[in-house]
Amino acid sequence: MENIKITVAENGPLLVNGTCEVTKIDGSIDIKEKVTAFCRCGASNNKPYCDGEHKKNNFVG
Ligand code: FES
Which residue ranges does the record assign to the Iron-binding zinc finger CDGSH type domain (predicted)? Predict the structure, then answer.
């Protein structure tokens, strides 16, 4: 089993490094590889993924 590394980016997304399966609200599944950025700020228009909106909102966290 592959190890997955998770990093909290300062004032940004949660970075998941490794292959992972993401089940979304509608039940669809994405297979993500390498680095996947998940929104922590709540402002993304592409949840659960980060789309860079945290920069516009000056997210702190
Ligand atoms: S953390 Fe990047 S858009 Fe929310």
Answer: 24-60
